[in-house]
Amino acid sequence: MVAAGALAAAPYNTSILFTLPLELREMIYDYVFGHRIILFPRPDDPRPKHLHPRLLRTCKTIRTEALPRFYKCTTLRAQSWWLRGFDQAVQWLELKDEEVRQMICHVEYMLAPHCEGDDEEERVRIEEWVLSECVEELWCGGVVLGKGALRVKAWNGEG
Questions:
Q1: I want to staple 110 with a disulfide (CB 3.0 to 4.6 A). Which of 64, 85, 126, 155 is the partner?
Q2: 3-state secondary structure of 74
Q3: Would you list the DSSP string of 105-144?
Q4: Which residues, including other chains, have CB under 8 Å from residue 113's CB and lie 6 or more apart?
Q5: What is the mean pLDDT of residues 84-104?
Q6: Distance (Å, rounded) from C-alpha 67 to C-alpha 52?
Q7: Which sign, positive or negative, has the C-alpha torsion 117, 121, 125, 127?
């Protein structure tokens, strides 16, 4: 619990947020970010949309503390026909430094509906093949993600 005097003692240019212990601030960041799915931005987009929420753009301290929490709570998704959509994801990831890439916990590649197999066994086989192709493409681009971060699944048209 934060003492009432601690809030009053904070300098005028320091946020009350920083009077809280780091563990509570991390809980706040997790609550603010929730679980979100974000489509990979196109690297050649002349007006790229901000991937990060405004909270991460408020100050260096919050960005340093909260960026790992953001990537923990966020799934980055590429979706397209076969591997063409994954090229954009690889290009975006190549632009990020190694420290940021290691923070990324969830990358999802959604296969287009026509890529689904007629039965469960065929669908799993296709997903495994595409996963191996995606891993190879990442490796060729010099991109290494954490173990289990990349997932491939058939897109059901939702989300």
A1: 155
A2: strand
A3: -EEEEEEPGGGS-SSHHHHHHHHHHHHHHHHHHHHHTT--
A4: 154, 155, 156, 157
A5: 82
A6: 9
A7: positive
- Separation in Å, CA 35 to CA 16, 91, 96, 106, 139: 25, 24, 22, 11, 27
Q: Is the pLDDT of residue 35 over 70?
A: yes
- Reduced to 3 states, what is the DSSP secondary structure of residue 152? strand
SS3 39: strand
111: number of CA atoms within 13 Å, CB side? 21
Amino acid at 11: P
Domain map (residue ranges) of the chain: 22-41+50-154
Please determine, for residue 153, whether its predicted confidence score (pLDDT) is greater than 70: yes
Measured CA to CA, the distance from residue 115 to residue 86 in angstroms comes to 15
Both tokens of 39, joined, read 């489509």
pTM value > 0.85 = no
Q: Is 26 helix (H, G, I), strand (E, B) or coil?
A: helix
Query: Shortest CA distance to 135 belongs to which of 74, 91, 86?
Result: 86
Render pLDDT for 115-134 as a digit per residue (tens, 0 to 9). Answer: 544 677 777 777 788 888 88
